[in-house]
Design brief:
The protein has about 80 residues and is of the alpha+beta class. A five-stranded antiparallel sheet has the order 1-5-4-3-2, covered by helices on one side. The longest helix has 15 residues.
Amino acid sequence: MEKLEHRVDPHLVALELGLEQTEYDPAEFDGAVYLSRQFGAVVLILPSGRLIPIEFTDIAKAKSALEQLQEELNGLGREK
């Protein structure tokens, strides 16, 4: 598990990462679900900024997916 330095809006996360790889339904779950085809991982992205890999083929790929997400989401929706 990793944590961004700021909170994020799951709706903005879905738009930033692409709707074809992201599921967001606030009636079902308050976070976004990211389906990384590149790393073969599924990562929950919570509004608090937590990134939680829940399905992955190996730990190294999960870590790579988390690192990529941190870079992509670093400046997204920073709150003051």
